[in-house]
Design brief:
The protein has helices at 25-28, 43-71, 77-98, 107-132, 140-157, 171-188, 194-218, 223-241, 246-270, and strands spanning 33-34, 277-278. The model has no long low-confidence stretch (mean pLDDT 82). The protein is elongated. The protein is mostly helical. Strands 1-2 form a two-stranded antiparallel sheet.
Length: 289
């Protein structure tokens, strides 16, 4: 058989006296490849990529802390409204600075942004009385459970990938934003007055609809800026949560530390157990010039 196999070529377009699945005995083991597409991760780049998850968790806990303060009347809704307005203009200015090199953006895009912002502002103002009575017939326990599930879905489906030159919205990121806004609406329905409902929903739109866009822009900035921004968000959310509940604040701190520092270490440690073997039995992949 070995003498006959000397004229065998590993091609399918040539007519040969061998079956299509024939493999030369001497070349079988030499064709084995172990982890051919494996790219080992390193610890600190993974920590930097996890900063996006940490930032998103910080926004969720910040929103919950603001909601509790509004519900207990420890925070004036007018103060939150002005903070939201100032944050919107500050975030928009930062977005314009970060995307200054993008030639697609121009006066037309900015005018559309201003029109859309005014439309959302007026729509929320008009719908605030409706949103306040939206869940009047629902018990508070059901609202808390529904809100927790929706925020968990929001964190699970959020888009944490880095920005690409031409970014397209994924279905999961849209579902994530819808879950967060829905959770914010049902929580806002437990607030005492229309102004508080309007301020909280407007704050939620900025955190869960507009902030992810800015976060994608920040991921192309220098690493020091990303780390500093993540640290500011974490300290702010922890400082807002600590006076309300010490146990919840420490749980949040534990989750943030686990996501940012422990999870990348576990992934780097688990790489040594990866063992993928490729050989002649795999489906052929055509090579196109």
């Amino acid at each position: 058989m070995s003498s006959e196999a000397d004229g065998w070529n590993k091609v399918l377009w040539e007519r040969q006296h061998f079956p299509d699945n024939y493999i030369h005995p001497h070349s079988f083991l030499s064709s084995l490849r172990r982890n051919p597409n494996f790219k080992p991760y390193t610890y600190w780049p993974l920590v930097l990529l996890c900063c996006a998850i940490t930032q998103h968790l910080a926004t969720i806990f910040t929103f919950l802390a603001v909601f509790v303060r509004l519900k207990e009347r420890w925070l004036d809704a007018r103060v939150l409204l002005w903070v939201s307005i100032v944050s919107f203009f500050g975030g928009y200015a930062m977005y314009e600075i970060l995307s200054y090199s993008n030639p697609v953006r121009g006066a037309f895009t900015r005018s559309n942004t201003i029109k859309s912002s005014l439309l959302v502002f007026l729509a929320l103002m008009g719908l605030s009385p409706v949103l306040r009575t939206l869940t009047a017939a629902t018990s508070s326990d059901s609202i808390w459970a529904l809100s927790a599930c929706l925020f968990f879905l929001n964190a699970l489906l959020a888009d944490y990938s880095s920005m690409k030159p031409v970014r397209q919205e994924r279905l999961t990121s849209v579902l994530s934003m819808n879950a967060a806004i829905s959770s914010s609406v049902v929580l806002a329905s437990r607030l005492p007055d229309d102004l508080a409902v309007f301020a909280l929903v407007l704050f939620a739109v900025q955190l869960f609809a507009l902030f992810p866009i800015l976060r994608h822009q920040l991921q192309v900035t220098p690493q020091v800026a990303q780390i500093l921004f993540t640290l500011i968000l974490c300290v702010l959310s922890f400082a807002l949560t600590l006076p309300l509940s010490v146990s919840v604040a420490y749980i949040y701190a534990g989750i943030s530390i686990t996501v940012t520092f422990v999870a990348p270490g576990v992934l780097v440690w688990a790489q040594k157990y990866k063992n993928e073997i490729r050989g002649p039995w795999d489906v052929a992949v055509p090579r196109l010039n």
